């Protein structure tokens, strides 16, 4: 049986078992119509509901106080009720944690303490988890990030962020480790509980309501063979989303010839060399030479040097993305406690997401153009164009809908056995599989050139430029043409799989002095397979036809011009165009795809080396064995309690990298196997200077494995004699970091405390472009795949074993990135002012310094300053929380963007207000709690500038989301 059939069978069994468990557990709960007597266990559970948020804060404070290492936690208020609607949002409340958001505003990935998302290790119930999805819109996610949007908060009880490691933790997170703990039946003892939750949400930019709901049932039994528990849960969301905005694909300047011109770099387009036909305004005559003298006359007040460096968006475009993000998630957990010594559990989670979106944008063509005449151009002090008119402009519609399906299944059995007071054995096995499929077609066609289309451009300090055409771009009859257009049919499939086993033996007092020993095995793999049938579909659709979905690819591929024989000929193109939702046209997708036989070309799409996102096809698999020893102790220093943890973890990784290469038209696959190992020491201590004052210190070494995309072993030759080659480097060494932390907390009572943490990381393992000379025989390229000229050249140099090739690839450098940071946290109940009120606040500051080769001047995607503030009131059944999260401006890329040496892509500072309010009706059946949640109250946008603040790279407006809900329990 294939693995896909196994996954499907397990999935169907899981869904059926979950439904059966829910029904089984619900029956006794529904049968209990009489209220529980006063003082019963049910009352204690209800007390958790009444003081849910405050209890979750108190649990987090107690967990921090009891920890020896630097750890922060978020607890569920009650079963099925987390403080936030999204796991990433909950983690974002923790000091030192930053969030990557999807363009619709939803939290997706997290970073910890000044390093990127790939340096954060995500665990599910203590075991490795991998999700096959491709990350944020327009990203490739070829690294080690885990998208969190498949994990609904309703099915989790606790999140832990370990900022300093212990030897017993799974290695791989230089920045830190996040562990997501799913619900288990013995978390909620009692006769049984059935919890329901329903919400209806509305985004102010979307037309439809977004429903979501959950149902969770939990019950424990006392049986002759011990205590037994079952928990089953389901969480479903149907989220409608519309995002409007602006995109530029970067900025650049014209290529001009004059003294002092082109000082910035870029030079991505040219002005027209002669006045185009049809232009007679501004005293111009068609055919007139557009020389420097004319450019100076047309743009008074702007020098030729300023005009040559004047920055314009390469493809300035208004964008519209609208669709639905569906998610169905199931959890099933069983626990058996035959006696006080043994606890056996089996956790299962299955989650599936489907995304269906229309995405359209109207592009003003600047990049690679040579047909516009600039008039009245003005620039600001940054060299960015603020106004101007551009004669003989051109636009194209880019219609690129996409469909995505992703699923993840995780199985996680384990046990804890305590045969006596000084021995404890923990064991755990894990297996997961995730599959992702994305189809991403593109249809592109243009306005005709020399048609009198002009652009009035204004960039006077708004969020993004105004680009106004003198003709109606929402008119299907404007004269749209195929010439210069294209169509693409592309898809991408990803599969990730993890499996492992972990065993930990504790000798001694579990709460005091003990020795821990452990062994672990983890096998993690990912395959990316790109599919592309664009050449055939383009030939069939607008290149004259004459092909089938599986016929030989035409050579050369005919241009997309709608010639006779095309399925969508130029004469019929307008009939497939209709007015769009944002002031410019869109495509009649169903008719166009049917008449161009899109589905058949998609179904037969062959393998491709790269996907539509730019992600490279390939495979990576890492098998890691590890072993560790820990000493945990508690002693006295100056008559005060001192707790410590000291240990070391050894790991050895066998890594297999496989990637495609095409040499002279022949496709083959290269596979490389490497091994590396390391020792990771760690030390943590916590000293109670007073009963309410704890001082902490930590020193450790952590590791993150290198970026798989830089290791794919495909080879390309840069010269006809096969002397120069470019190749991935499967021998890249991991990133390692030496970490030092010091801090402490003053516990002010109840959930309250004030905490300070100082940290330092010294990170190595960065890469630079390097060269290495090796014999051709070690290159991995079959000799018979070379051209005759290349074979002859190699034979002339002594044959494959003697002839050398200079290989350029990424190699490890000696650079060191030092990260210094400070975290401050204040959690304070204000019962002395108003019973039930309080606040939480934290701030994080990060500084980065680089030395040596390869280390970036600053890690990308990190805000130097972040802070979070939440005020709350919870009393008499009412709960109100108002939260604010601030992230300072970021650098989001390295320099050299679009050929401009100094240019980086940045991200503007952003703050977001969220409100959560609810009221519980204790006297009604199921004690329903009615809730109102408002996300992004002030409709804060996501904006990224291109080097200069006035040059918007992207701008997305996710809008405000309002949700009304009800939640109760039987």
Automatic annotation (TrEMBL):
It holds the Pfam family TonB_dep_Rec_b-barrel. Belongs to the TonB-dependent receptor family. It comes from the Bacteria. Residues 456-937 form the TonB-dependent receptor-like beta-barrel domain. The keyword Hydrolase does not apply. Keywords: Cell outer membrane, Membrane, Receptor, Signal, TonB box. GO terms for cellular component: cell outer membrane. It is found in: Cell outer membrane. Residues 1-31 form the signal peptide. Its main location: membrane. Residues 64-177 form the TonB-dependent receptor plug domain. This is TonB-dependent receptor.
